[in-house]
């Protein structure tokens, strides 16, 4: 047996988060779900996985999930000098360039434009990154899928959680820019932002799951997505104000009204940029998108849950 | 009480010549109106029925491509059955290829955690275990550096130490592993024996017939996706040996059977 000190080393830095996770009773009121899969019959866990059962299986794998997310964060910028700082630099650099160009070209106020474009870039980057990386999420988890029957949503969840941490950091920076430019943001708007971010997270998760499943069967998905996102970037009010299109009453107004990306951007951007809650229409669009993507993702997962192992 | 029961289980899976459908293929299919899908179905298990009771050690033998590993993966619940029923009770530990599935960028310690979490362990149950795994692997300070700096033997050593540390009721093993250097091997043998004794049910797949004869009471002989024969180990293995020698003389060596449905 090893001594006390080396045992502590062995458990290492895991203590901080595992302590929180090992006591689910405090959060959920029962600690029984922790038990290992003691009985596994065809009827219970394999042919007809109920929603509750599925969620509890995800919960059983929470430690693996968290470890993998941490590993992804650690390895993503492994050999780089700035490390996680790179996830901040991209939206910042893009925002600086846009500020430089648009503020001169169109006579915009830097104080107003900078937080606008920065927040937009953060959300855009989170959504597109989740979809793009989501494509390879099942392939990435192939070694695990082939070893043990696991709830498959675990793998897009791993990807999206990683993206969310990067996105979260850059969003905090965007908030800081907004505060620096326009003074304190309305706290009520910030509280309303929390459920909004949960909604955006689920949109990203469902999209990542969908594209992951499509990508397994159709490996060109990633390239198609890359091009599509580049086009959609210009069609979505990220670097120009949505009001531009509305005020001028151009035909291009549908880019704002019928573009789900534009609405999702709006519900996150409005509280940070203007300190107010976005319109109900934008919320309705976002919620609608989330529900439709969720329904399709759940349907696909139900169909593919057990046969995906043959394709990865 | 652990048990495994298969009743007329069928399994077929698709194999694709290319990995996935490319855009080019898709466009060609749409324009040429040719509906050649580029993959076919392999009927890998045909009406497989058997039952394994608590305390049994069972070996699965057969030629390459006879469906041995597929059967093991179906028992583990990794492959879905197309029809038939699969009933099973007991916690499962499956050792298919213990060297794959490691995160090479993570340290040895972290990999112990990942593997154990995958087996359904929690940090609370792991604290003691990690120390014993680390001790058995004899990797010392190497456990603190990423796995990509390890030699192949060291990875195997770690994999073996982790794999044999669990206490499953049902143990599924594909091929008998080779483990690192000789000194380690003697130690590994003992640990493997203990590990095999702890489980209520052990199912082994492989070509090591002398091991099977010693270890298993019962052997299932798979041939072209269905059970050719099953019964007492000695009897079935003897029959299998005569059969394969006759077959070797007839066709000159083993050829895998491709089962196209």
Structural overview:
The complex is a heterodimer of chains A (312) and B (261). Chain A is an all-alpha fold and 312 residues long. Helix content of chain A is 74%, strand content 0%. Chain A has one domain. Chain A starts with a helix and ends in an 8-residue tail after the last helix. In chain A, 37% of the residues are buried. Chain B has a six-stranded mixed beta sheet, sandwiched between helices. A three-stranded antiparallel beta sheet of chain B has the order 2-1-4, covered by helices on one side. Chain B is globular, with a radius of gyration of 21 Å. In chain B, helix 6 links the parallel strand 6 and strand 7. Chain B has 261 residues and is α/β, with parallel strands linked by helices. At the A-B interface, helix 1, helix 2, helix 4, helix 6 and helix 10 of A face strand 1, strand 4, helix 3 and helix 4 of B.
Low-confidence stretches of chain A: 1-48
Strand elements of chain B, count: 9
Q: Would you state the CATH class of the largest domain in chain B?
A: Alpha Beta
Percent helix among the residues of chain B? 25-40%
Query: What do we call the CATH homologous superfamily of the largest domain in chain B?
Result: P-loop containing nucleotide triphosphate hydrolases
Helical run tally of chain A? 17
Helix and strand run of chain A: HHHHHHHHHHHHHHHHH
Give the CA-CA distance, first to last residue of chain A: 41 Å
- Please tell me the overall pLDDT of chain A: 81
How many helices of chain B? 8
Specify the structural class of chain B.
alpha/beta
Number of domains of chain A: 1
Strand content of chain A: under 5%
Write down the Rg of chain B.
21 Å
In whole angstroms, how far apart are the ends of chain B? 37 Å
Helix content of chain A: over 70%
What is the fold named in CATH at topology level of the largest domain in chain B?
Answer: Rossmann fold
What keywords describe this structure?
heterodimer, A: 312 residues, mainly alpha, 17 helices, globular, disordered N terminus, B: 261 residues, alpha/beta, Rossmann fold, 6-stranded mixed β-sheet, 3-stranded antiparallel β-sheet, 26% strand
């Amino acid at each position: 047996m090893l001594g006390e000190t080396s045992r502590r080393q062995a458990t290492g830095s895991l203590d901080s988060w595992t302590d929180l996770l090992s006591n689910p009773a405090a959060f959920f009121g029962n600690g029984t779900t922790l038990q290992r899969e003691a009985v596994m019959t065809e009827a219970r866990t394999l042919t007809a996985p109920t929603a509750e059962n599925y969620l509890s299986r995800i919960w059983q794998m929470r430690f693996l999930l968290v470890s993998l997310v941490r590993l992804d964060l650690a390895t993503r910028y492994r050999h780089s000098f700035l490390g996680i700082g790179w996830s901040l630099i991209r939206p910042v650099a893009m925002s600086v360039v846009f500020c430089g160009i648009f503020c001169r070209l169109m006579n915009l106020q830097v104080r107003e434009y900078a937080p606008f474009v920065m927040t937009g870039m953060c959300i855009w980057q989170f959504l597109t990154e989740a979809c793009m990386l989501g494509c390879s999420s099942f392939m990435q988890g192939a070694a695990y899928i082939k070893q043990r029957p696991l709830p498959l949503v675990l793998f897009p969840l791993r990807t999206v959680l990683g993206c969310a941490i990067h996105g979260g950091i850059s969003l905090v920076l965007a908030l800081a820019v907004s505060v620096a430019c326009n003074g304190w943001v309305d706290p009520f708007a910030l509280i309303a932002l929390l459920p909004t971010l949960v909604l955006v997270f689920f949109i990203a998760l469902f999209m990542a799951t969908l594209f992951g499943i499509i990508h397994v069967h159709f490996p060109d998905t990633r390239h198609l997505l890359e091009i599509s996102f580049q086009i959609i970037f210009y069609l979505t009010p990220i670097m120009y104000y949505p009001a531009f299109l509305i005020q001028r009453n151009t035909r291009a107004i549908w880019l704002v009204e019928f573009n789900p990306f534009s609405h999702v951007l709006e519900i996150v951007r409005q509280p940070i940029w203007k300190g107010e809650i976005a319109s109900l229409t934008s919320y309705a669009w976002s919620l609608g998108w989330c529900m439709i993507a969720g329904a399709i993702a759940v349907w696909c997962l139900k169909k593919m849950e057990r046969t995906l192992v043959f394709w990865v | 009480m652990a048990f495994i029961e298969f009743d007329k289980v069928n399994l077929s899976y698709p194999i694709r010549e290319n990995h996935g459908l490319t855009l080019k293929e898709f466009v060609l299919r749409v324009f040429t109106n040719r509906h050649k899908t580029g993959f076919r179905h392999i009927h890998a298990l045909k009406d497989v029925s058997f039952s394994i009771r608590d305390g049994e050690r069972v070996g699965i033998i057969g030629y390459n491509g006879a469906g041995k590993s597929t059967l093991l993966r179906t028992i583990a619940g990794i492959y879905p059955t197309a029809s038939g029923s699969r009933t099973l009770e007991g916690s499962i530990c499956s050792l298919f290829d213990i060297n794959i599935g490691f995160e090479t960028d993570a340290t040895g310690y972290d990999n112990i955690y990942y593997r154990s979490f995958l087996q359904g362990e929690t940090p609370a149950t792991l604290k003691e275990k990690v120390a014993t795994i680390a001790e058995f692997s004899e990797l010392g300070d190497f456990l603190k550096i990423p796995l990509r700096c390890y030699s192949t033997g060291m990875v195997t050593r770690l994999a073996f130490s982790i794999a044999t540390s669990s206490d499953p009721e049902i143990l599924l093993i594909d091929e008998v592993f080779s483990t690192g250097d000789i000194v380690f091997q003697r130690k590994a043998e003992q640990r493997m024996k203990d590990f095999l004794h702890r489980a209520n049910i052990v199912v082994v797949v492989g070509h090591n017939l002398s091991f099977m004869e010693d270890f298993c009471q019962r052997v299932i002989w798979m041939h072209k996706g269905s059970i050719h024969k099953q019964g007492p180990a000695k009897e079935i293995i003897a029959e299998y040996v005569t059969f394969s020698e006759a077959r070797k003389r007839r066709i000159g060596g083993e050829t895998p059977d491709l089962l196209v449905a």
